[in-house]
Automatic annotation (TrEMBL):
Keywords: DNA-binding, Transcription, Transcription regulation. GO terms for molecular function: carbohydrate derivative binding; DNA binding; DNA-binding transcription factor activity. Residues 3-79 form the HTH rpiR-type domain. This is SIS domain-containing protein. Gene3D superfamilies: Glucose-6-phosphate isomerase like protein, domain 1 (3.40.50.10490), Winged helix-like DNA-binding domain superfamily/Winged helix DNA-binding domain (1.10.10.10). InterPro entries: Homeodomain-like_sf (IPR009057), HTH_RpiR (IPR000281), RpiR-like (IPR047640), RpiR-like_SIS (IPR035472), SIS_dom (IPR001347), SIS_dom_sf (IPR046348), WH-like_DNA-bd_sf (IPR036388). PROSITE patterns: HTH_RPIR, SIS. Transmembrane segments: none annotated. It holds the Pfam family SIS. Residues 123-261 form the SIS domain.
């Protein structure tokens, strides 16, 4: 079983016990700390027994905790940067502006390290080949969905944004195997985004989740999973890394369809000039 630790957790997460889910979430969010803890120390940190931690390692397919610990240490090789060290050293009364900027930088760094490049490339091709693209983004994630929809509709002319809960399933009624459905949600996850992605999966559509972790409830209903870290340690999530990932997705689609993109943008420039869309002296 030559799978990465995060991939093993993703595959096993739906059937994990409550304690094992707590372990999985702690490891994914704090792998830099967990890598230097014994099985006993990790259990004590989360209020559970050493044997529970050992059973967790076995459940993931490792021979024991030492092998799981080695996988954790492999995750952090070359990943601890001056940005992270600085962030960890900040005190509660530190300048908020500086703290937010450094937290956003750390979310970007982790996203770069953890994003599944193969899923990203496959998602780009599926978006290009799709009959229709449906984007489900509700509540605070609405802004992310609007941004993605704006550019995909300019480039491909077949994007539909679902940002209202009342008509979600009516708008997905015609979805099928030739379509792509993109679900965007971050903690606290929108229940209807999850249900919409599940419905699309049942209808045979290509499903893509943009979310914060492989343990996200969206992951079990997504064919492709793109992880963007959003932890802020405050009452809001950080959407800097998710927006950067969406930027990359849009640019990759535009680059892959270069001729179509050039034609679409040329037509738009003519319309914008004719109707004076943009301010000029």
């Amino acid at each position: 079983m030559n799978l990465s630790l995060s991939k093993r957790i993703q595959e096993k997460f739906p059937t994990m016990s409550t304690n094992h889910r707590k372990l999985a979430e702690f490891i994914l969010q704090h792998y830099d700390k967990a890598a230097f803890l014994t099985a006993l120390e990790l259990g004590q940190t989360l209020g559970m027994s050493e044997s529970t931690v050992i059973r967790f390692a076995t459940m993931l397919g490792y021979d024991g905790y030492p092998q799981l610990n080695k996988a954790l240490q492999d995750m952090i090789k070359n990943k601890i940067t001056t940005v992270e060290r600085h962030r960890l050293s900040l005190k509660e009364d530190s300048n908020v502006l500086e703290w937010v900027f450094h937290t956003d930088m750390e979310n970007l760094r982790k996203t770069m390290a953890d994003v599944n490049v193969q899923d990203f490339r496959s998602a780009v091709q599926e978006i290009i080949q799709a009959r229709n693209i449906y984007i489900i983004s509700l509540r605070s994630a609405t802004a992310l969905g609007q941004f993605l929809h704006f550019y995909l509709h300019l480039l491909l002319k077949n994007s539909r944004l679902i940002s209202g809960t009342g008509t979600l399933f009516e708008e997905l009624l015609a979805v099928g195997p030739k379509d792509v459905v993109i679900g965007i949600s971050f903690p606290r996850y929108s229940r209807q985004t999850i249900e919409g992605l599940k419905y699309a999966q049942e209808k045979g559509a290509h499903t893509l989740a943009i979310t914060d972790s492989v343990t996200s409830p969206l992951s079990q209903y997504s064919k492709r999973l793109l992880v963007a870290h959003s932890h802020m340690g405050s009452f809001i999530d950080s959407f800097v890394a998710p927006l950067s990932l969406i930027n990359a997705l849009i640019i990759a689609v535009g680059t892959a369809e270069s001729e179509k993109t050039t034609q679409a943008l040329s037509q738009l420039e003519d319309i914008w000039a004719r109707f004076k869309t943009y301010y000029s002296e």
